[in-house]
Amino acid sequence: MAIRLAHFSDIHVTTAPLHWTWGDWFSKRLTSWLNHAIGRGPQFALADEIVRCLMDDLVQRGIDHVVFSGDATALGFEEEVRHAAGLLRVDTLPIPGLAVPGNHDYCTWAAAESGAFERHFAPWQQGRRIGDFAYPFAQAIGDAWLIGVNGATGNRWSWDAGGAVAPDQLDRLRQLLDSLPAGIKILVVHFPVCLAGGGFEWYCRGLRNLDEIVAIAQAGGVNLWLHGHRHTPYYHQSPNGAPFPVICAGTATQRDLWSYGEYVIDGARLLATRRQYDPETKAFHNVESFELILATIN
């Protein structure tokens, strides 16, 4: 039976007031705030409006499952996480969802350790696990499995937007993939395998242990990798560095890039439609379609 997924990412919402502490002024959060305040912040001025419109659109289109691949926030404050979860209607949306954090949600070590993302996105993090650990987790949808992996880490330096999957999480990912019944396996993580042009992400912007993660995904029968992080959407049938297709959702809320992906998966065939926001009509419209054949690894 065909399933219909909606995949979106990098909404970067913020709110006020934010609970700044002295420690924030001596962390990556300060430079992130400056970048947002005098840089790209205005490009996300309509973020709240667009997210509300997006949720209405998903309900109207009969989506079976929502996939959010991270960066709910601009600065990783709990107030922002709470606000984002409210806009996304995590508690009330009549569609099940999966969510993983992005590097902005884990902007600092304190943000990563706080568990704010996991608390506020708990309804979208239900699933099958190895033990009581938050990540990874798997959700069944029809004959397919969505596997949420956390690649975000709290970073110290202002230029470091990279991540990694910790060794213990990698071990659990291996076990989880091996334990799942037969079916399409779709891995969801914030970071890409490769860029739109086929090259690899800079070390300070990508997954530091990408090769190890891909090897475990391949051995575990992953058929598709969904991610965000880069704000321009793209896809690869045969990407550099992986034996399965990859899709970058781009950003759902940044000016002129604001879009999300709708995927109909029927067996090993994926039919995708990219829907873009139109500020004039305040609605989403189809702008692109493509087809992928999902990898058959097992």
Question: Could you explain how this protein is built, in words?
Answer:
The protein is an alpha/beta fold and 298 residues long. It has one domain: Metallo-dependent phosphatases (Purple Acid Phosphatase, chain A, domain 2). The protein contains 7 helices and 12 strands. A 6-stranded mixed beta sheet has the order 3-2-1-10-11-12. Strands 4-5-6-7-9-8 form a 6-stranded mixed beta sheet, with helices on one face. Helix 3 (78-87) links the parallel strand 2 (65-68) and strand 3. Helix 6 (167-179) packs parallel to helix 7 (210-219). It starts with a strand and ends in a 5-residue tail after the last strand.
Q: What pattern of helices and strands is seen along the backbone?
A: EHHEHEHHEEHEHEEEEEE
| Domain module tally | 1
Mean of residue pLDDT values: 93
Please state the CA-atom Rg, rounded to the nearest Å: 18 Å
User: Which range best describes the helical content: under 10%, 10-25%, 25-40%, 40-55%, 55-70% or over 70%?
Assistant: 10-25%
Q: In which order are the strands of the major sheet placed?
A: 3-2-1-10-11-12
Q: What is the level-2 CATH architecture name?
A: 4-Layer Sandwich
Total number of strands: 12
Q: What percentage of amino acids are in beta strands?
A: 15-25%
Largest sheet data: 6 strands, mixed
In DSSP terms (H or I, runs of 4 or more residues), the helix count works out at 7
Give the full name of the CATH homologous superfamily: Metallo-dependent phosphatases
Shape: globular
Q: Terminal Cα separation, in Å?
A: 20 Å
Oligomer: single chain
Q: Give the low-pLDDT segments.
A: none
Structural class: alpha/beta
CATH top level label:
Alpha Beta
